[in-house]
Amino acid sequence: MMETITQPWPWYTAGIIIGLIVPALLILGNKHFGISANLRHACAACMPSNIPFFTYDWKKELWNFFFVGGILVGGVISTLYLGSDEAVIVHPDLAKELATYGISDFSGMVPAELFSFENLLTVRGLVMMIGGGFLVGFGARYAGGCTSGHAIMGLSDLQLPSLIATICFMIGGFIMANYLLPFILNL
Fold it and tell me: How far apart are CA 105 and CA 110, in angstroms?
């Protein structure tokens, strides 16, 4: 059993599991899948005030805290007990392209040249981690939800705003990956 769990799974496995979560949430509890709303719930719970955006019954969304907590616990368990010491397999063409940006360490899940405490205080690190985190948070709030809320839940509910948001997410991702990221990696 552990052999099966620790081996890489096909990419479509996650799609099937996520695809089953959406109807399960709707059928079992009339709940909507999404992650970014948890920040709003946490603010409403921890900082009660008269701000209209935070004035609602956040306790109805308590299940979502457990969902996000499960994601965190699952990540910790998989890192500590199900991890592999083998280097991540990167396609040779991608490895060659990344080498032109000074990225060659694929021993972890993410390149150490990009995601480490030493690189956080570099221009590239600040732009990618701090700037990117801000833009993701701002974008999720501006779009009225994150990619999981819109692309998974909203599209399955046939919501036009979710279709528009998902198209914008995809366009932004293509622009970032093909034009902005190469520029940032050269900083």
Answer: 9
* Residue at 174: amino acid letter: F
Q: Is 68 exposed, middle or buried (0-12, 13-18, 19+ CB in 10 A)?
A: middle
> How far, CA to CA in Å, does 116 sit from each of 93, 109, 126, 171, 183?
24, 12, 11, 28, 20
- Residue where the block lists tokens 């990225």: 103
Residue count of the chain: 187
Q: Indicate the pTM of the whole model.
A: 0.75
Q: Where are the domains of the chain?
A: 1-83, 114-187
Sign for the pseudo-dihedral over CA of 173, 146, 51, 71: negative
Contact 150/143 with Cβ under 8 angstroms? yes
Token digits of residue 152: 């998974």
d(CA 140, CA 35): 10
* Residues 100-153 pLDDT 10s: 988 888 887 788 888 888 888 888 888 888 898 898 888 888 888 888 888 888
Mean pLDDT, rounded, for 155-176: 92
